[in-house]
Amino acid sequence: QVQLQESGPGLVKPSGTLSLTCAVSGGSISSSYRWTWVRQSPGKGLEWIGEISHSGYTNYNPSLKSRVSISVDKTKNLFYLNLASVTAADTAVYYCARDLDGSGWLHDQWGQGTLVTVSS
Amino acid sequence: EIVMTQSPATLSVSPGESATLSCRASQSVSRDLAWYQQKPGQAPRLLIYGPSTRATGIPARFGGSGSGTEFTLTISSLQSEDFAVYYCQQYNNWPQTFGQGTKVEIK
Questions:
Q1: What is the pLDDT of residues B15-47, one digit of tens each?
Q2: Which chain B residues touch A5 with a CB distance below 8 Å?
Q3: What does the pLDDT look like over A37-64, one tens digit per residue?
Q4: Cβ contact (<8 Å) for A45 and B101?
Q5: How far apart are CA B84 and CA B80, in angstroms?
Q6: CA–CA gap between residue A110 and residue B56 (Å, rounded)
Q7: Cα end-to-end distance, chain A, whole Å
């Protein structure tokens, strides 16, 4: 069974860039799935951030599109999240996930999540 | 984007009883509705989609129904491990969106 593990700084300064890595094990990131980032904050609940397909196609939430970038390193079985110009509103638990069937809609494998706090 | 509204916010249920959770969409999402369960300190877990197909390993006491804008998750004979927060998610319109959750607590 595939496993996902998020990593990255737990504290980011306002106006800085949030950068997270998701390590995929037990399966290839080149397989026909979509790899997703979702965040969870007390104020906004669960929010879909965006996704990347095995072919590198990306899709972002319009509310974040100007600030977000998702990329993949197939050689290392990793995918990444970068969120620029962060504010306190970006404080959340960030999850990486894999979808059920390649559609990108249903997320059946999740990392355990990593808390990122935006504060000076 | 489509707004998903869940009710009630909190549901108090005794073990062995059943629970009915509701999810309403601000516009029709056809049958493209999923439910997730989340326990404290854990990631969400996919329970049901489509909106009545149970994900792999999900017990038959979990049932989903509905279409259009009104959906229901029913948990029959609640077990101790079922006390958690439940989220609905629509994936008919982009971007996919989630409800604010219903907490099922022990009465």
A1: 999 999 999 999 999 999 999 999 999 999 999
A2: none
A3: 999 998 778 999 999 998 889 999 999 9
A4: yes
A5: 9
A6: 15
A7: 39
